[in-house]
Amino acid sequence: MDVQAVEQVLRKQGCALTPQRRAVLRFLDGNLEHPSAGQVFDAVTAALPSTSRPVSSRATIYNTLALLEQIGAVRVLRGTDGEMRYDPNTTPHHHRCCDVCGRLEDVPAEAVTLLLDGRPAVGEVRFTGRCPACTTA
Amino acid sequence: MDVQAVEQVLRKQGCALTPQRRAVLRFLDGNLEHPSAGQVFDAVTAALPSTSRPVSSRATIYNTLALLEQIGAVRVLRGTDGEMRYDPNTTPHHHRCCDVCGRLEDVPAEAVTLLLDGRPAVGEVRFTGRCPACTTA
DNA sequence: CTATATGCAAAATTTTTGCATCGTT
DNA sequence: AACGATGCAAAAATTTTGCATATAG
User: Which among A102, A99, A110, A92 is positioned nearest to A34, based on CA atoms?
Assistant: First the structure.
């Protein structure tokens, strides 16, 4: 996801570049943590100047995330814990989901292609297991 | 999942074999649809004699399903739609999740082992795509 | 200025919890 | 008879929706 490109697409579609949308874009850009909608909301709330009070609302965050999905700026995933997760990395790649804490980690497309004997996988492949943190515990 | 075996385990643990639990077992046995908790509730409600009225409650269904998971009688999955899904097939196998309708289909363990060049996969592997019904539409 | 987005509040879903009552063992 | 399970109702948590107001272009 490239912030510049997304803003251009939004402009072209006649969508307003509100501070809330900008804050969502800034938080998501380069974010590898697959944040949930709640986490996006918290981040936006923290990022926007608290002087101009309302800051944001959950509805706005969901609206914005749905919009970003529509224009292909984010991939929407759902973790084991049932929360929606948002991935700004829209290039082909896969995920591993921790059985214990629900954390989603990236699995490079090439790694799966190797497993598949050279043929790239169609769609997302989701592996389960334990993330490093939960393996130690 | 074998109903006889599960009932024996429950008895051995001092768990009561209530009509509700029996109904859940009967509905799940051999079920390949990966039903949600709500679907299990509906099925149990329909299956139990409506003459003895209370029939069942959602809390009981969740209790029972959690119990069955604890004793390893069912595998708990979560579909794209965020609902919990219950799979009475506890033998090693994988799933394909429909992007459109959320339906979960079985993928034999051997199919994935083949893809992996003879090495069986660890954990569940989840593929995405479209189920036959949603491919036609 | 006009169309659009925002924030609030409330609804809809799914799952969890507390407690009195009922049923299995 | 005793202990555990049930059903109800209400609480949590996440996501969706309706509407008046505020704001970006």
Answer: A102
Name the token pair of B131.
């189920």
Chain centre distance of CA B80: 15
Q: Which domains does chain A have, with CATH numbers?
A: 3-86 (1.10.10.10), 91-136 (3.30.1490)
Per residue of chain B (137 residues), what is the pLDDT tens digit? 999 999 999 999 999 999 999 999 999 999 999 999 999 999 999 999 876 667 899 999 999 999 999 999 999 999 899 999 999 999 999 999 998 888 999 999 999 998 888 888 888 999 998 888 888 76
CA-to-C1' span, A57 to D21 (A): 14
Non-local CB neighbours of A79 within 8 Å, separated by 6+ positions: A34, A36, A85, A97, A102, A103, A104
Is the CB atom of residue B49 positioned under 7 angstroms from any atom of strand C?
no
